[in-house]
Design a protein that fits this description.
Layout lengths: L1 H9 L3 H7 L9 H14 L23 E10 L5 E6 L4 E7 L11 H15 L9 H14 L5 E10 L2 E7 L3 E6 L2 E5 L4 E3 L2 E2 L2 E2 L7 H4 L1 E6 L5 E5 L1 H4 L4 H13 L4 H16 L7 H10 L12 E10 L14 E2 L1
Parallel strand pairs: 2-14
Antiparallel strand pairs: 1-13, 2-3, 3-4, 4-5, 4-10, 5-11, 6-7, 6-12, 8-9, 12-13
Helix pairs in contact: 2-3, 4-5, 8-9
Catalytic activity: O-phospho-L-threonyl-[protein] + H2O = L-threonyl-[protein] + phosphate; O-phospho-L-seryl-[protein] + H2O = L-seryl-[protein] + phosphate
Family: Belongs to the PP2C family.
Protein name: Protein phosphatase
Length: about 325
């Protein structure tokens, strides 16, 4: 764990610590603090719209030519129950989060991993050039995972780039955000039965079915758009305002998708362990329960996939694979 904390700590620019009051690292020395604070003020200006996060209308003309998705991921384990996949040529990424309520009875990660593995296999066995429909893909992956009698349950989200259109489907509180020019263009809204109890997919005959429950949608894509896909370990701990400010900072610094994924995951990791600042989880807890709820984060597995929408003429980058998460 010490090594993990050190690696995570290095992902977070000091400007973010100063701007957002992160607690994991001691403040810089007095002589350095002003320099870092000034840097934060320049790159991380506060929102000027009253803090709202309404989606912007997509009314800009779409330039001719093909687009594709270049993505990378970062995964910080807590209980090790998240899974994700991606396929660069097909332009599709997905994440899943095993439901922790099964922990101690069965392998709580089983359904999430089965779901992502089955989605990945559907993509790699499809005819080349096939445009991925996220709802169809999620439905087929769910059917295959359920048919195998896989234990536990999972939330999930799949986002694809089909031609010049971004499409998505999700169930539960795994989600996505699309950024354009440093501002939120589209954002998923968590599906929950009640506080901290998201919709979930499982193998039960009377369980939720993707076709009926999934939230789906699409938006015209534009070169330069940035898509962030993640589990609730990200969205429970990082606000929309913080996401926008980090994206603007990363864009100004020329972050690659890997830079973005690691900084966002590292930021969420530290925010989850703070006990002196509000997070989306603590704010929602007070609102939904009507009870006192401490200003704190929610430690959890954190999966972040960041995709840049780029011109099809740029070289194709193939993501690395790892034992639990499928990427190609």
């Amino acid at each position: 764990m010490a090594r993990t904390l050190i690696e995570t700590d290095r992902r977070i620019p000091d400007a973010l610590r100063v701007a957002f009051g992160l607690c994991q690292r001691p403040p810089p020395a007095p002589g350095q603090h002003d320099e870092v604070a000034n840097f934060a003020a320049v790159l991380l200006p506060p929102r000027d719209d009253g803090g709202t996060s309404e989606p912007m209308d997509c009314d800009e003309p779409v330039a001719p030519g093909g687009l594709r998705m270049v993505f990378e991921s970062s995964y910080i384990r807590d209980h090790d129950e998240d899974a994700h996949f991606g396929h660069a040529e097909a332009g599709v990424v997905g994440v899943a989060d095993g439901v922790g309520g099964y922990r101690g009875r069965v392998d709580a990660s089983a359904f999430a991993r089965g779901l992502m593995n089955n989605a990945y296999m559907e993509v790699v066995t499809a005819a080349p050039g096939t445009h991925v429909c996220p709802r169809t893909l999620l439905d087929r992956a769910h059917q295959a995972t359920a048919a195998a009698g896989t234990a536990a349950a999972s939330t999930a989200v799949i986002v694809s780039l089909a031609g010049r259109t971004l499409k998505w489907a999700y169930v539960g509180d795994s989600g996505f955000v699309v950024f354009r020019d440093g501002r939120i263009l589209r954002r998923s809204q968590s599906q929950q039965h009640h506080f901290n109890c998201p919709y979930q997919l499982n193998s039960k005959p009377d369980g939720i079915r993707v076709a009926a429950a999934a939230a789906v949608g699409e938006v015209p894509a534009k070169e330069g758009d940035i898509v962030v896909v993640g589990t609730d370990g990200l969205f429970d701990n990082v606000t929309d305002d913080e996401l926008e400010r980090i994206v603007r900072m990363g864009t100004a610094l020329g972050f690659s998708p890997k830079n973005f994924a690691e900084v966002l995951a590292g930021f969420a990791f530290e925010a989850a362990r703070c006990t002196n600042r509000d997070t989306p989880f603590s704010v929602l807890g007070r609102r939904e329960t009507g009870q006192a709820f401490p200003a704190c984060g929610k430690p959890d597995d954190i999966t972040v996939v960041v995709a840049h929408i780029v011109s099809h003429t740029l070289p194709l980058m193939i993501s690395r694979s790892n034992p639990h998460n499928c990427e190609q």
